[in-house]
ThiH protein
Amino acid sequence: MSFYDELARWPHETLDALIASSTADDVLRALAATRPGPADLAALLSPAAMPYLEDMAQRAHELTVRHFGRTIQLFTPLYLANHCTNQCRYCGFNARNHIRRDQLDAERIMAEGRAIASTGLRQLLLLTGDAPRISTVSYIAEAAHRLRPLFPSIGVEVYAMQVEEYAELVAGGVESLTMFQETYNPGLYAWLHPAGPKRDFRFRLDAPERGCLGGMRSVGLGALLGLDDWRRDAFYTAMHGAWLQRYYPATEVSFSVPRMRPHTGSFEPQHPVSDRELVQILTAYRIFMPTAGITVSSREAAAFRDNLIPLGVTRMSAGVSTAVGGHAAGGDGNVASTEGAAAAIAASTAISSGDATGDLSGRSTKVDMTSGMAHAVTEDLQQGADAGPSQFDISDDRSVEEMVSAITARGYQPVFKDWEPPQDNVYACGAAGHADGTVRCEAR
Ligand code: SF4
């Protein structure tokens, strides 16, 4: 099996025509659908949906509260290394960029882990560049194994692996995998990845499925928004998620919505995504897959992230550093890159009060923030140039404490841990779960 075959059924000419022909009636039908299909998804992502963003926000909010309650999980990334053999044109870790390369040893891994754990966080995302001979599978599994006593939930965002390699990570204590396809356009993908193992479009496309087969409890997908026409990439991402959920129902599927950020290099996205368009994507994902997790990272500005909370987000990063060793070094959020950066955020029409006006559709409606609904209308933010070895600049550098306050202020509950590996469980009867997933009652 492979999502590749499903993708082949949706050549971009067919998809573009479907999106362009979507009407207001199609959007309204999609909003009312109990099980939206591909045509509904296309309608929700189409220009015809733009006047209905407010309705999409209301529907997304209702579905999210029904399936997740008013909760936001918090996590933070830990960069183990920035060595990379690829030449992705849009990334600061690109092998051709002259940045300081680094990899954490066991002592520094634990220093990072302790610094993060001291903030209260219990969910961790381990990242490396794509350098399998340096950041080997065993190295990543060993890092997870060491960090497990501090973090019940550990995910990875690393290079594409084989099934047995994912299984090795799972045995080390990893439970979730995030794999960004970047773009589902094979021609553009080839241009964006001129050299290195990541150039293999199909191997990467099938990686989430291999993660499911390797035993990952949760698999996250995403396109790097801004690389190609965002409507196409958002459609293919959502279809990929639905395909995985159909064939691997035991695996939890989630989406991320990363937009291109400034980085070390000169690449400029050809299809920038506005805030309103990002809201359209996020709410379309939620309506299409009501039970999927949705992550919004610190790439987005603080005020905008806060306003997204009621619209379908289930997971947010906090206390972020995208530099190797950044947390133990003081963790100001962007460590090596903020120093020397030009002026940071230039402008934002952040909505923070209960009486903001202007809604997602552009109609001038008074907004009732007390009901928990936010209407995220902000100006795009401008960010200064990167000056150091972080993968990209972040916009929201708030600490964990500040994120907790922001989430609580919206009437939501920040969640530090919602899962525990079975081997650590001790049940009321005295039974303990074991690594093989069985539960043996010790009391008998
Ligand atoms: S996106 Fe990943 S694989 Fe590509 S250059 Fe950056 S770190 Fe390397």
In short: The domain at 3-324 is CATH 3.20.20.70 (TIM Barrel).
